[in-house]
Structures are given as structure tokens and as C-alpha cells.
Specification:
Chain B: InterPro entries: Cornichon (IPR003377), Cornichon_conserved (IPR033466). The complex is a heterodimer. Chain A is an alpha+beta fold. Among the domains of chain A are: about 10-30 and about 640-830 and about 860-870, Rossmann fold (3-Layer(aba) Sandwich); about 1075-1200, Severin (3-Layer(aba) Sandwich), CATH 3.40.20.10. In chain A, strand 22 (about 895-900) and strand 23 form a beta hairpin. In chain A, helix 13 (about 175-200) crosses helix 14. The relative contact order of chain A is 0.10. Classes of the chains: A alpha+beta, B mainly alpha. The interface of A and B includes residues 799 and 830 of A.
Chain lengths: ~1200, ~160
């Protein structure tokens, strides 16, 4: 690969320069337009850049480069246009690529541009690098670094993953040095493009990471440049040309000033990058992109990246420039797939991020990383959707081109306005590029290169602001004729769209896994929002497990004095002593302590502090934040031991799990634990230290419950461990002969409340039947004949407010109640769930649980308990969500109690809890270009520390309807709609809720058709960003919670509703729209590497029986359940290799495990399933379903695109919508 | 011929209307209390405050709930009186509100013994602002009707047709 690549370089380079110039020019022109200017004014982030006094210097430098650029552009300007590009390229290249793919390609191109930019400085390097790369395939990254000699020192930093990890917590210690690194890295990057291809196949994660990090640095400079440019010109758009110069400056001078500017934006991102790289293949992909477009193109990893953002828009604009990029295309040739998509911007961002990370030294890869970088978001999202926890960057290399291609399409939607046009060009270009990659880099001189970068960035940012104006149609706005598009579902998981921000902000932004908005472009006015007919809201996953999280210990937590916002990356520093709040615009003083940066140990750089470098941070709160000592971890288990419960046999499993995990219960030395059991009486257990054995105390007065010995029922876990173990060993057999069938749940809960009142904590309630005694007793309300009624579904609301009141009391005493309902018959979950809903607990439901008759449920309980007992927990928490003045929140969804209009009271917070908030626009946002949302979660950790976790999300404001549509995050929108529909079903009726869902599609599509799209109304047209909307809504209508006409037990329905309300987005999406894969032909094509495992990445299949063939085996991932469907004529080799049975007939009916066979296909299938399983709160159980077994109805009900007796097929649904629209 | 049944109705409604105005004002104050949490932000995180606040909310909601029936029944009484007094215009003015009250009363979630003002629900910014608006509108309506009744009382009693 390397050899060909090199040869092309020269030629390519020759072409490239002009194009680049053109791109830069176009970019500059675009910014000049109205769009950019407004942004800057309002945007807090922009201010940051300006602030540093030292920056002034940079601008000057920039100017010179910019001059050059304009010249270039003048000639090339026309190129950017879609038509021209497309024609030009198409003519030259035969790039058959499809529309979908195009976005990706566009991205790739940008990346290529970046590469080139970098390349120029280190043209020599390029030549040398290839060699190393090739060698490196496995350990490539290191080699690469070495290849670029000057850089090598830097490289070392990046290359060693260990280094990163070490850094992780602290964020930005090494900034100053980083700058140097960056410069270095840029060079290396240049080299990369050519080299990268060879390395790709090897797919060493590390090597890629290295690359990315290196690249990232380069990228950063670009951003910085752009920023400086901004400062000079005041408008964001302007930055484009200048940025190049900036890079140089930074690299060359590495002066403190330049570093400062970087640090602000870059550090966080870098961390993210690092994290990402480590964490998952996706992450790696991102990083790779940053490094070099070519890399990304060549590497599957890159494909992953694409989704990211494809910073597409900008890149598209650049596309004019992109012609220059064609060289990158060369890279592509290597890899056939267009996956390359990653936009240059993305790359840059990534690069920046990575660099920053390195500097910050927080390698914390995981989710965090994703959060920070805009581009990362995609990655993150992807990771979220797929268990991407793994840090291995490697995955990317391996990735098959095929998968990537699909991803890009999705990714592209949100972002790149410009992309669509560019894409065609790019694709074509790519084909030619095969040879040409290298050229680009050689051609450019350092400055020019930089200029290109900035241009890209600027363009993207400007586009974001301007939106469609400059580029005819962003990919996300590409009209899709829904009724004619047969394969609407992309082949790869859908990523979260990346907000159309400038690169700095993008990389700083919160990960979409933690924080998503249904509209990534916020409409300026409520009127505009009403016109769009789309829901506006946030989806939060605030307490997510993060592998990397900057934790800040500081005496003074800097907050706005009027709105109490925590300082965040999107505030602007007016000067070194003052900062302007980005939510209320108040100017605040920077406290003296904040002037000192503990990471760099330097003074006078407040904008480099980790708080300002990371959008997700955690503060350790000072004593100001607690008026009583932090509460200890207190756990109380309330267990049903009536006949029914003993018969079901859950006690054995629970006690076993508790015994195993007793030492892993989160808590410090003060941890306390207690047990209660109940049937028609309530039994307490005295476990006071010093007793020889547990003492059971029975209270039979259930009308007036009292605590027999209040002091010794909750005991210290460590002091009484032996007694606790004795009790747990004895419990399962204590009630085996009970004949008591009544259940006095209400009184038991009252007793538990009394017991917990002094401390607060967590109550886990295990219930197996309808409570039949004392307060809170319930009657059966379900009429089995109504289960499949198509008309009215009653009893979705609680029958009594006893449980609600109890929950509120508990919430007031900082006690959460978690409910485990294990019942074989109706138990009125609608009423019982209230005890958890309002006390911030969680609900688990195991229908027809029996430890021997239903082993899969027993296994599920066991796994869930393991997670439940050992997962992180926060006590006495409150969460406050703030947003920029003008926006207001109403209607929260999730499990909590709303204490004042923006304050959620959470007695407990767990990592599996998701929340949703609906927003409205109260004042016009015309005088701002950015809005920010901040979630602050104050909680007591299990170690007794008071901590505050802060997430900040920044989104652009747009004024045109088209931009609003371009920025739709369809998954977030569907999750918010599902939440709203649940509320509607309970407060009104199920049929109302269903109508509302259908109307949501009809309204938004007809609004789009009548305002944005100019096409004829004969067809059902949706913007590409919304193309999955009807499919998802149909999926919702067929979901257990909302379906009618299919027999659904009331408890199942209510449980599904509870799930919708409190699951985080990633998990909820799987529940709504399962993923279907064909697994009998898994190959390593496009596979990713996770923790030294090769994980195949089969393409997604649409959920229709037409995709099922008798010869195949399919895996359906429904979030909490996996089904493997085996076709009748499935290949015997597969059955034997994977399932361990000789033929189809011998497969047992109930099979819940895949045997560990020593065959390649078995290994692939298992590694794929394990990968899917990772990071799920509810460990999925696996069902092997034979084609003819009765269980197949379970499987087939998830094929939501097919027609059922009571519901439309997808096509019919589309026709129905079309009819409604035409009315 | 001054003192007709109609005149009696108007005088009685005048008095009761004053009561309704007080109810409406109380509602407005109560919702305002629910909406604002004056404690300092740090204090809000204090568990003790959390408890107080929660009790406060529950107490207010309890009172609000207690006031629903009296208010609705007083207003229904108006309508019945005016119906008997054959004051069609006045009745016509009151009927829309009467229907609204019926709708509010019977349109509560199924299976719930609660009326409106359920603490978790009422704290919703959406619901809260709706309730507040409703209270303001009612206040305006009752105030206007107060003066209207005053006028009518005079009209019926003093300016009797010759």
C-alpha cells in the first residue's frame, strides 16, 4: 500500500493546492455571510478564544496565510458547489456510491484535507512514515511516531496508552508540553495519510490510538487557528483562513498564549479522545479519523468515526477544497467502502481532543471521551448503543468497510449540511484517490495546510450557523421518499447527530450518551418550534458509569452568582479576572484560587482549569454543601415470605447473591444493613453484634406497626457480618412449610419507612403477589378478556394513593424504594410501581418467575441482582437542570419527586436511571447563537463524600425551519415522545396516546412537506434526519406498552411503561426497535477489536420476516432479551459448530446458552453476543428459538415491519400517514 | 316591588362571590408558594429542608384539594338559583364555567380517588403554570361577576319598572 500511496502523492499534491485554496476561500466567504457573525456575538465559547491577550499575535500571523488562501479560492470557488463537484468527480471517477454513503465520503474528504494540511509541514515524514506504519500494523502506532523523528518525543506520550491512563484523573497537567506535541503531531499526521492505509489492516488498536492522538494535536491547532481568526475578525466564520496560521504559530511558538487558547477548548476533547480510543473501537475510529483522513478511510475504524459528525456540513463546503482532498480519496481506494466519511472537521476535532486529552493526561477513555468531543458524540452514541465500553481503539482497524458505509449515512444526516453536495464529489474523488492520497500532503506548505484546516473548521461552523445557505442541502435534509425507499434502516447502528458547532465547542461538548437533545439545532422562537411540530426536550443519563471523569477538589466551587450555574467550558472569559455566565449572561469575578491551575501548576490561566476544559466534571463538595454529615450507605431488604413466595423460590437466589456480593456492596465502614420479612405478619431480625444467632421478632399488629427494637435492626455490615451470613443461609429454609398466603405489604413498608427514617438509604422490596392485608391492600383489576381489546385499556393508573404517599414520605426521608416484583399472576404493578416512581427507586419485574420451572427468569434475576447489589449508588441526591435564559423546562420524566420547578429530589441515584425533560421556548433567542444546558447532580457517594456531577451541553440556535429539521435527533425525539405517550395513556387513555404518536409523525412530516420541501406532495417525503421517524413510531405502537389488539397482560404493559419512563436512551431504543443480525455467516470483515477479542460486526437487518431465510440463523437484540432464531434448513455446520447439536431436529426447545465450542464460528458468535451484552443494566437472557417452536411468536412479534392481525405493516403505516397528510 | 326572588339571588351571590374571590386569591398564593422555593441553593440540598419542603407541598396540596368541592358547589348553586329565578342572561354567563368545573371534576385519571392537585403531578411546571393561569382567570371572572351582580342587584331592587 505504502508504495502506491507515495507515488500518487506528488501528483495529488499538485492538484490539491488549488482546491484547498478554493475550499478556504469558499469557507471564508460563507462565514462572511450573515450566519457567522451572529454566532460569535452570543456564543460564549467564542469569547473564550478571544480572551487571551496573547492571542492578538496569532491573528497577525494568520492574516498572511489568509491572503494566500483567498487567491486559491478565487479560482476554485465554483468547485464547492455540489453540482460542479459531483460532475467533476463523477466524470473522473466511477464512484458508484449510494446516497447514503455519500455523507461519509464527504467526511472522509475533510479528514483528508486535514491530513494534507498537516502533511505539508512534514512531507518528508510522510515518506518515511509509511514504512513504519506498515511494519507497525500490529504495534503500528509506536512505529509511526518514531517515524516522525522530531515528533518522536511527543509520540511517545501519545503512543503509550499507559501514559494516558495515568493522566486520566487530572486533566490537564501537561498542557504546555502538549502544544509542542501538537505541532509535532501535526507533522506525523501528515505522514500518516499515506502510511495509514497499510496499518489499517493490522488494526492495532494502540497504534491507531497513537495516531489519533498525534493527529488530534494537529487538529487542535487548526481549531485554535480558527479561533484566533475569529477573534481577529470577530466572526466565527472568518477563522477559517486564519486557522492554518494559528496552527503554525502554536506549533512553532508553542507560546503560552496559544497554548492557553487551546487548552480551553482542546483539553477536554483530548481527554475524550483518549478515552474513546481506549474504550471502544468506535472511539478508536474517531481518533483515527483525526489522525488522518486517509487512515480513517483505509481503516474500518474510520468508518466508525464517520458517524460522528462528519462535521459534514463544513466539510461539504470545503468540498470545493475537497477536490484537493481527492488525495485522501486515494486512501479510500484502498478501502473500498466509503466509510471514510469522517469529516475533516471531525478529524480535527478528534485530533484536538486527543491532544488535549493527552495534555490533560486524563486517559480516561470511556464514555466521557465521547461526551466531550462533538465528533465523539457519535462515537459515544454508538458505543452506547452497542456495548462499546471497551476501550480498545483497535477495533477500527479491523472494521469491515461494509459496516462503515451504512454508518456514515446515518451520521451524516444530522450534521453536514454541505455534505450532500460534496459527497458525490468525494466519492468519485475517492476512487481516483486511491493513487492520490499522498500527493496532497506534499503539496501543501505548513501554512497552507493549516489554512486548509481552519477553513474546514470554519466552514463547518459557519455552515452550522448559516446552515443551508452556503451549501444547498445538508445530508440531514436530503429528501427521502419514504414509500419508495425500501431499505430505510441503515446497515449500522444509528449514531447521535452532532450539533453543528465549531470544532472547539464540538470537542468540548457533553457526550451524547449522557446528554442529548431532541433538536440539535434549537429553534429561535417558540413559533418556529411550533411550526416544526417536533418535540423539544432533553434526555439525560446523568449518573452513567464513566471510566474517566475529572474529579475536582477545590475549596471554592466557582458558580455564577445570580443563577448558580457551575463554571463550564462554554462560559466566556472577559479578561483574566472576570467570566461571563453562559446561562444568564451575568459577569462574575474569577476567584483568586481559580487563577491557579493545579494541573499545569501555573498561575493566571483560569481558562485552562479542568472545569473549563471538560463538559463533564465532578466536584467534591465542600462542607458548605452539607448541613448534616453525609449519610452512610444503608440497605434494607423487605422480603415476601408468604406461601406464594416460597413456592417461587426466589429466596434462595437472593440469599445466594447477597452472600456472594456482601463485600462488594458499595459503602464505607459505616455501611448498615437490615432485613425484614412479611406474610400476614411482619418479622424483624435482630442482628446486633454479640448475639449468638439472628433473633427473629414477629409483629402481628399490622394496623399499627411499631419497631420492636429500633436500634438493633439495622446493623453495621462489618461488625455483624457473621450473623448476617447466618441469617442469609437460614432464610431460604425458614419458611418452607408456611401456609400463610396473605401478604401485608403495606404495613411492612410502613415499618420499613420507620426503620429508615433516621438515616435514609435504600429499601429493596421483593413481592410476589397482590398485597392482601392491611393498609395498601389491592384488588385484582384486570379482566383477562380485555387483554387484547382494541378499545379501552383501563387501570393503568394506581388504584390507591397509599403507595404514592408512602413514596413521598420516603423521599422526604431520603429513602428510595426499589421494587422486585416476581409474580406469576396479576399483581397490580400500576399501583405498586408508585412506591418506586416517586421515591427515585427502580422497578424490576419477572413475570411467571419460578426458580425451576422458569430457569431463564431465575438466571436473569441472578444476574440483575449481581448488578443491582454492586453497582454504584448515590444517596440523598438532588438534580437541578438549568438552561439558557429564554428556555424553560416543564414536565420531567423518570423516577423522582419534583421538589421545586427545576429541582428533582432523588433519594437514590443509580447508574441505570435515565431522565427526560420537555422544554419550551419562553423568550425569543434572537440575540444568542448558542444555548447551553447544565445538569448538576449533588449526591452522597457510598463512601460518604458529597459530590456534584456536572454535565454541560451546548447547542446552536437556528432561525430557519430547514435547519431545525436538519438537526433532529430522531432517537431522542422518539424516546421523548414515548415518555409523553406514557403520561398521556395514564392521564387520558391509551388510544389517545396512540393517536398522539401517529399525529406526531403526520404533523412533522406534513409541516416539513409544506414548508421546507419543494417537492410534489404526491409522495411521502421526509428529510433524511427524520427518515426513521415513522418506523420508530410504528415500533412504539407495536411495543408492549402501547399495542392494542394483541393480548398483553396489564402488568406487562405497565412494566413496559415504567421502563420507558426510567431507562436511558440507549437501552430504551433497543427496547423500542430491536436490532436484528444474521449470525450464521459471521466473518471478520469489518470486525472490531475489543480487549484482544475480535468482534464481528454483521450488518443490521430490517425487522421483517422477509429478511429471515430458512437457511439462516438470526440474532435479535431486544435490549433485555436476545433471541436466536434458527431456520429450518439452517446449515448443519452452523448448528453443530455453534449450538453443539448435530442437526436442527436435535436442538432442544428451551436453550438459553451457547456452548463454548472450540470452533471459529462459535467463537465469533459468542464474542459478538458477549460484546452486545456488555454494559447493559439488565443482563439480557438468551433464547434459542427454533423455527417451529411455539416460542417463535415471541420472536415474531418483534418483527415490527410486518403486518399483524391488529397492526399495520410498515408500508401500510406509511400509506396511512400519507393519507392523513393529504387530508 | 323591590324584593323579588331574583333580587335575593343576586344579593346572596354577591356574598358568595366574595368568598369565591378569596378562594381564587388563595389559590394564586398557594401556587406561587409551590413554584418558588426561597431557600438558598445550598440549603435546598439539605435533607432537613427537603423534608420541610415536602411536607409543605403536601400540606398545600391537601388544602387545595379541600377547597375544590366548596368552590365548585358554590358555583353550581349560583347556576341553580339563577335558573330558578329565570335570569337567563346571568345563567348564560355562568354556564361555561359550570361545564368547565364539571369537566375538571370528572376528568381525573381513572382509578384514582384523588381529585386534582396530586403532589407529584402538581409540581410539574406545566401543570403548575396551568393551574396558576386558571386561578388568575377565575379571579378575573369572579371579580367581574361580583360587579355584575352588584349592578343587577341594584337594577332589580331599585330601578323597578313602572
Amino acid at each position: 500500500m505504502s508504495a502506491p500511496a507515495e507515488s500518487p502523492h506528488p501528483a495529488a499534491s499538485a492538484r490539491i493546492p488549488p482546491k484547498l485554496g478554493g475550499a478556504a476561500a469558499s469557507g471564508a466567504a460563507a462565514p462572511a455571510g450573515p450566519g457567522p457573525a451572529p454566532h460569535q456575538q452570543n456564543g460564549p465559547a467564542q469569547n473564550q478564544m478571544h480572551v487571551p491577550s496573547g492571542y492578538g499575535l496569532h491573528p497577525q500571523n494568520y492574516i498572511a496565510p489568509s491572503g494566500h488562501y483567498p487567491q486559491g479560492p478565487g479560482k476554485m470557488t465554483s468547485l464547492p458547489l455540489d453540482s460542479q463537484c459531483g460532475d467533476y468527480y463523477s466524470g473522473l471517477y466511477i464512484v458508484p456510491t449510494q446516497n447514503v454513503v455519500t455523507p461519509n465520503t464527504a467526511n472522509q474528504q475533510p479528514g483528508a484535507q486535514q491530513m494534507y494540511g498537516r502533511g505539508p509541514p512534514a512531507p518528508h515524514i510522510v515518506g518515511s512514515t509509511p514504512g513504519p506504519f506498515q511494519g507497525a500494523a500490529s504495534s503500528a502506532s509506536h512505529l509511526h511516531t518514531s517515524a516522525s523523528q522530531p515528533y518522536s518525543p511527543f509520540v511517545n506520550h501519545y503512543s503509550s496508552p499507559a501514559m494516558y491512563s495515568a493522566n486520566s484523573s487530572v486533566a490537564s497537567q501537561g498542557f504546555p508540553s502538549t502544544c509542542g506535541h501538537y505541532a509535532m503531531s501535526t507533522v506525523s499526521n501528515a505522514a500518516y495519510p499515506s502510511v495509514s492505509y497499510p496499518s489499517l489492516p493490522a488494526g492495532d488498536p494502540y497504534g491507531q490510538q497513537m495516531f489519533t492522538s498525534q493527529n488530534a494535536p494537529t487538529v487542535r491547532p487548526v481549531r485554535d487557528n480558527s479561533f484566533s481568526g475569529h477573534s481577529t475578525a470577530i466572526s466565527h466564520s472568518s477563522p477559517l483562513p486564519p486557522p492554518p496560521s494559528h496552527q503554525y504559530h502554536q506549533q512553532q511558538s508553542l507560546s503560552g498564549c496559544s497554548t492557553l487558547s487551546w487548552s480551553a477548548s482542546g483539553l477536554p476533547s483530548t481527554q475524550d479522545n483518549l478515552l474513546r480510543n481506549h474504550s471502544g473501537s468506535l472511539a478508536t475510529a474517531n481518533s483515527n479519523p483525526t489522525n488522518t483522513v486517509a487512515d480513517s478511510l483505509s481503516c474500518p475504524v474510520m468508518q466508525n468515526v464517520q458517524p460522528l459528525k462528519s462535521s459534514p456540513v463544513v466539510s461539504s463546503v470545503l468540498s470545493g477544497a475537497s477536490s484537493t482532498r481527492t488525495p485522501p480519496a486515494a486512501n479510500r481506494p484502498v478501502e473500498p467502502v466509503a466509510s471514510v466519511t469522517q469529516p475533516s472537521e471531525l478529524l480535527q476535532q478528534k485530533g484536538v481532543d486527543s491532544s488535549s486529552t493527552t495534555s490533560s493526561a486524563s486517559p480516561v477513555p470511556n464514555s466521557y471521551d465521547a461526551l466531550e468531543g462533538g465528533s465523539y458524540r457519535d462515537m459515544l452514541s454508538s458505543s452506547a448503543s452497542s456495548p462499546a465500553p471497551d476501550p480498545a481503539p483497535e477495533p477500527d482497524p479491523a472494521p469491515a468497510s461494509a459496516p462503515t458505509a451504512p454508518q456514515p449515512s446515518k451520521m451524516a444526516k444530522p450534521f453536514g449540511y454541505g455534505y450532500p453536495t460534496l459527497q458525490p464529489g468525494y466519492q468519485n474523488a475517492t476512487a481516483p484517490l486511491n493513487s492520490g492520497v499522498p500527493p496532497s500532503s506534499p503539496v501543501y506548505s505548513g501554512f497552507q495546510q493549516y489554512a486548509q484546516y481552519p477553513g474546514m473548521n470554519q466552514l463547518s461552523s459557519s455552515l452550522g450557523g448559516l446552515s443551508l445557505q452556503s451549501s444547498p442541502q445538508p445530508e440531514s435534509l436530503r429528501p427521502v421518499n419514504l414509500t419508495q425507499e425500501r431499505n430505510i434502516l441503515p446497515m449500522t447502528p444509528v449514531w447521535a447527530p452532532v450539533p453543528n458547532l465549531n470544532l472547539d465547542l464540538k470537542k468540548l461538548n457533553c457526550s451524547p450518551d449522557s446528554f442529548r437533545c431532541t433538536l440539535t439545532n434549537i429553534p429561535q422562537t417558540q413559533a418556529l418550534l411550533n411550526k416544526a411540530k417536533l418535540p423539544l426536550g432533553l434526555l439525560l443519563h446523568p449518573f452513567r458509569d464513566l471510566t474517566q471523569l475529572p474529579v475536582i477538589t477545590s475549596n471554592t466551587i466557582v458558580r455564577c452568582r445570580s443563577c448558580r450555574t457551575y463554571i463550564n467550558p462554554f462560559v466566556s472569559f472577559i479578561d483574566q479576572r472576570r467570566w461571563k455566565c453562559n446561562l444568564c449572561y451575568r459577569v462574575n469575578d474569577v476567584p483568586e484560587e481559580f487563577m491557579y491551575n493545579p494541573l499545569t501548576r501555573s498561575y493566571g490561566e483560569p481558562h485552562k482549569r479542568p472545569e473549563v476544559q471538560n463538559s463533564t466534571v465532578e466536584f467534591i463538595a465542600s462542607s458548605d454543601y452539607m448541613l448534616r454529615p453525609p449519610q452512610p450507605a444503608v440497605y434494607l431488604f423487605v422480603l415476601d415470605v408468604s406461601h406464594n413466595a416460597v413456592e417461587a423460590g426466589y429466596l434462595t437466589i437472593l440469599c445466594q447473591s447477597l452472600l456472594e456480593n456482601l463485600d462488594k456492596l458499595p459503602g464505607d465502614s459505616r455501611t448498615r444493613i437490615g432485613f425484614m420479612t412479611f406474610d400476614s405478619t411482619i418479622h424483624f431480625y435482630n442482628l446486633q453484634e454479640g448475639l449468638s444467632q439472628p433473633q427473629m421478632l414477629i409483629v402481628s399488629d399490622i394496623d399499627d406497626v411499631f419497631l420492636p427494637t429500633p436500634d438493633s435492626l439495622l446493623v453495621n455490615l462489618y461488625e455483624s457480618k457473621e450473623l448476617i451470613k447466618d441469617l442469609l443461609n437460614a432464610l431460604p429454609n425458614m419458611f418452607t412449610n408456611t401456609r400463610e398466603t396473605h401478604s401485608a405489604l403495606g404495613p411492612a413498608l410502613q415499618a420499613a419507612f420507620k426503620l429508615m427514617s433516621p438515616t435514609g438509604g435504600r429499601v429493596s422490596v421483593f413481592q410476589t403477589q397482590l398485597p392482601s392485608l392491611g393498609a395498601g391492600l389491592l384488588q385484582s383489576r384486570e379482566d383477562p378478556n380485555q387483554r387484547s381489546s382494541t378499545k379501552v385499556v383501563q387501570h393503568l393508573g394506581p388504584a390507591t394513593d397509599f403507595y404514592k404517599k408512602l413514596a413521598l414520605d420516603c423521599s422526604g426521608q431520603q429513602t428510595a424504594v426499589d421494587l422486585f416484583l416476581l409474580s406469576s399472576q396479576y399483581s397490580d404493578l400500576a399501583s405498586l410501581a408508585c412506591m418506586s416512581k416517586y421515591s427515585a427507586g427502580c422497578i424490576y419485574y419477572y413475570p411467571s418467575f419460578h426458580y425451576t420451572h422458569n430457569p431463564s427468569q431465575a438466571e436473569k434475576l441472578q444476574k440483575d441482582l449481581k448488578r443491582y447489589l454492586t453497582r454504584k449508588i448515590g444517596f440523598e441526591a438532588v438534580m437541578r437542570i438549568r438552561c439558557t435564559k429564554g428556555l424553560s423546562m416543564h414536565t420531567f420524566h423518570g423516577n423522582f419527586f419534583v421538589r421545586s420547578t427545576d429541582l428533582l429530589s432523588l433519594a437514590n441515584i443509580n447508574p441505570d436511571a435515565g431522565f427526560a425533560v420537555q422544554l419550551s421556548i419562553e423568550e425569543n433567542l434572537t440575540d444568542t447563537s448558542l444555548v447551553c444546558f447544565q445538569t448538576a447532580l449533588l449526591y452522597t457517594s457510598s463512601k460518604g463524600e458529597r459530590r456534584i456531577r456536572v454535565h454541560t451541553l451546548c447547542l446552536p440556535v437556528v432561525s430557519s425551519l430547514a435547519d431545525v429539521y436538519a438537526g433532529v435527533d430522531v432517537q431522542a425525539a422518539i424516546c421523548l415522545l414515548a415518555n409523553m405517550a406514557v403520561d398521556r395513556s395514564i392521564s387520558s387513555s391509551l388510544s389517545d396516546a396512540r393517536d398522539a404518536l401517529v399525529n406526531a409523525v403526520v404533523d412533522s412530516l406534513s409541516a416539513y412537506g409544506s414548508t421546507v420541501s419543494n417537492l410534489q406532495h404526491s409522495a411521502l417525503i421526509a428529510p433524511s434526519s427524520l427518515k426513521l421517524f415513522p418506523l420508530y413510531v410504528l415500533a412504539l405502537l407495536k411495543q408492549k406498552a402501547f399495542r392494542t389488539g394483541t393480548s398483553t397482560r396489564l402488568d406487562d404493559r405497565v412494566y413496559a411503561m415504567c421502563q420507558i419512563k426510567c431507562q436511558p436512551l440507549v437501552h430504551l431504543m433497543k427496547m423500542i426497535h430491536p436490532n436484528l443480525y444474521r449470525i450464521d455467516r459471521l466473518t471478520d470483515e469489518g470486525a472490531i477489536h475489543v480487549n484482544d477479542r475480535v468482534v464481528p460486526q454483521p450488518p443490521l437487518q430490517k425487522l421483517s420476516a422477509e429478511k429471515l431465510t430458512r437457511e439462516g440463523a438470526f440474532l435479535m437484540d431486544c435490549g433485555s432479551v436476545f433471541y436466536i432464531w434458527i431456520g429450518k434448513s439452517c446449515d448443519n455446520n452452523f448448528i453443530e459448530d455453534v449450538l453443539g447439536y448435530p442437526n436442527f431436529a436435535s436442538i432442544p426447545q428451551k436453550m438459553t446458552h451457547l456452548p463454548e465450542l472450540d470452533t471459529l464460528s462459535s467463537e465469533r458468535a459468542r464474542s459478538f453476543i458477549t460484546w452486545l451484552r456488555d454494559n447493559r443494566p439488565l443482563s439480557p437472557i438468551l433464547h434459542v428459538v427454533k423455527d417451529e417452536s411455539p416460542a417463535k411468536t415471541e420472536f415474531f412479534q418483534h418483527l415490527i415491519e410486518d403486518r399483524t392481525e391488529a397492526a399495520f405493516s410498515y408500508y401500510e403505516f406509511l400509506l396511512h400517514i400519507q393519507q392523513q397528510i393529504c387530508k | 316591588m323591590a324584593f323579588t326572588f331574583a333580587a335575593f339571588c343576586y344579593m346572596l351571590s354577591l356574598v358568595l362571590c366574595a368568598a369565591l374571590i378569596f378562594f381564587a386569591i388563595w389559590h394564586i398564593i398557594a401556587f406561587d408558594e409551590l413554584r418558588t422555593d426561597f431557600k438558598s441553593p445550598i440549603d435546598q440540598c439539605n435533607p432537613v429542608h427537603a423534608r420541610e419542603r415536602l411536607r409543605n407541598i403536601e400540606r398545600i396540596c391537601f388544602l387545595l384539594r379541600k377547597l375544590v368541592l366548596p368552590e365548585y358547589s358554590i358555583h353550581s348553586l349560583f347556576c341553580i338559583m339563577f335558573l330558578c329565578a329565570q335570569e337567563w342572561l346571568t345563567l348564560g354567563l355562568n354556564v361555561p364555567l359550570l361545564f368547565y368545573h364539571f369537566w375538571r371534576y370528572f376528568h381525573c385519571p381513572a382509578d384514582s380517588s384523588e381529585l386534582a392537585y396530586d403532589p407529584p403531578a402538581v409540581m410539574n411546571a406545566d401543570t403548575l403554570s396551568y393551574c396558576q393561569k386558571e386561578a388568575w382567570c377565575k379571579l378575573a371572572f369572579y371579580l367581574l361577576s361580583f360587579f355584575y351582580y352588584l349592578y343587577c342587584t341594584c337594577d332589580v331592587c331599585v330601578f323597578e319598572p313602572v
